[in-house]
């Protein structure tokens, strides 16, 4: 991971660290590594999304463990150094700065930790389509609904999950949402 971190310019690494801290503070639902990876690649750095996601997971673990153990900035940097870390100097400087500025605000309550193991709903998009024909059937005229859910997994990675439903399946889906809404109104 240290080799991949060396590739990331300091400003992008700082942005990644700050997004992770914001996620751990429940200010944002997750870290959009796909968007950040695309911007890093546009700047001419060759890194893939899988490597960036691994780095984000490592940093998230680092910051959440440091918060759980109430580490000061110096204790965190000392621990990083004593672990035989071969992190580049710019990464250590960024970690020091971000932890010094925002680290103490990380909420590590038991409820927040339990909720973080599930993931978080971010957004939902849908569209109605009609399949007109296929290579095996000339006239389908089959309506369907495509739903795309944007979800932040427990580590904070934002991903899209898509699925299609027939109209009867969508009506059942809609009915269940209405039931949830009516239950929420009573709370």
From TrEMBL:
Domain COMM residue range list: 120-187
Pfam families referenced in this protein's UniProt entry, alphabetically: COMM_domain
Role this protein plays: Scaffold protein in the commander complex that is essential for endosomal recycling of transmembrane cargos; the commander complex is composed of the CCC subcomplex and the retriever subcomplex. May modulate activity of cullin-RING E3 ubiquitin ligase (CRL) complexes. Down-regulates activation of NF-kappa-B. Inhibits TNF-induced NFKB1 activation.
Sequence similarity: Belongs to the COMM domain-containing protein 6 family.
Protein name: COMM domain-containing protein 6
Source lineage: Eukaryota, Metazoa, Chordata, Craniata, Vertebrata
GO MF term list: NF-kappaB binding
PANTHER family assigned: COMM DOMAIN-CONTAINING PROTEIN 4-8 FAMILY MEMBER, COMM DOMAIN-CONTAINING PROTEIN 6
Signal peptide: none
Taxonomic superkingdom: Eukaryota
Gene from which the chain derives: Commd6
